[in-house]
Amino acid sequence: MAPMEARLVAELPESPGWQFEPKWDGFRCLAFCTGNDVALSSKSGKPLGRYFPEIVDRLGAADLRDAILDGELILPIGSRLSFGALQARLHPAESRIRKLARETPAQLMLFDCLQNGGEPLIERPLRERRAHLERLHAAIGDAAILLSPKTDDGAVARVWLARMGDALDGIVAKRLDGRYEPGERAMLKIKQLRSADCVVGGFRYDRAGTRVASLLLGLYDDAAKLDHVGFTSALANEDKRALTARLEALIEPPGFTGKAPGGPSRWTTERSADWQPLRPELVVEVRYDQITDDRFRHGTRLLRWRPDKAPRQCRMEQLAPPLRPSEIDEIV
């Protein structure tokens, strides 16, 4: 069974009849529970149980009877959720996984119930499925198995977005009278549109080694070191010739004085084999979606050049990692 998915929208619906929940930054997970026999499945249908044995054990101990639960695997490190720590679980060595499960245990955030006691619920409206989920969660009674906050008030959901800023990945909206539609984009999601001012600490050439392909972005840390935090390749073709000449005039080591970029992933010519370091003089504003271990998880979108911004003003503190659930609870 594939989980129900969401399509991206610019604004939350204004009409009544919707349930709103925080969008969690983790691994989507379906849990199939029959007593102490528990299977975890990813969004793509791959098994996750071997990577999160602590969740399997906790759901098994709850002795649920023929239940299918929909949720998100999340992993708090200190006061924040860490997507990087989740990725580290996808390790081939079982001994390594068991060690991480003991040292940094994951949690499962539940937000839907597809079956309870062998009774299929996917044709039932969300309000009924939520009632089943709340009863199951209360029966589980485990601090690692969480219940996602929700509201039926769109104004409250917009307050969540406004008050949590970068610390919330977004909001998901579901029809209260809607059935569960496996594999369909039957939900709505609005994601945070975040931006950051970054120093251009380097660049890479294209395959031919003649024009710029991507800008390498940096932010200053507390030690005044320029750390590489990601890249943007959203450059207009008509601007690349002039931009390449501008960048080449600034080539000067070391570029990044803290964390530096790794090797290129797909450029193969001799000239493009390494990134080119730049004097830290240029600043750009970029749009990004998510942060993992003080880096942009995906490529960014170039919004504008910032000649008015001093490079030293581009600091790591602009990036806010996701809050852990207990802190979100204080707001919602």
Give a written overview of the molecule:
By secondary structure, the protein is of the alpha+beta class. It folds into 2 domains: 5-191, DNA ligase/mRNA capping enzyme (D-amino Acid Aminotransferase, Chain A, domain 1), CATH 3.30.470.30; 194-318, Nucleic acid-binding proteins (OB fold (Dihydrolipoamide Acetyltransferase, E2P), Beta Barrel), CATH 2.40.50.140. The chain has 7 helices and 20 strands. The chain has helices at residues 53-62, 83-88, 94-103, 126-140, 154-164, 237-248, 325-331, and strands at 5-8, 18-22, 27-35, 37-41, 64-74, 76-77, 80-81, 107-116, 119-120, 145-147, 170-175, 185-191, 194-205, 212-220, 226-232, 276-277, 283-288, 291-292, 295-296, 301-305. Strands 3, 4, 5, 8, 9 and 10 form a 6-stranded mixed sheet that branches. A hairpin with a 2-residue loop joins strand 8 and strand 9. The protein starts with a strand and ends with a helix.
What would you say about this model in short?
This protein is 21% helix and 33% strand. The protein is an alpha+beta fold and 332 residues long.
Instruction: Summarize the biggest pleated sheet.
Output: 6 strands, mixed
CATH superfamily of the largest domain: DNA ligase/mRNA capping enzyme
- Low-confidence parts, pLDDT < 50 over ≥5 residues? 264-273
Total strand segments: 20
CATH architecture of the largest domain: 2-Layer Sandwich
Rg estimate, integer Å? 23 Å
CATH C-level label of the largest domain: Alpha Beta
Mean pLDDT: 90
Structural class: alpha+beta
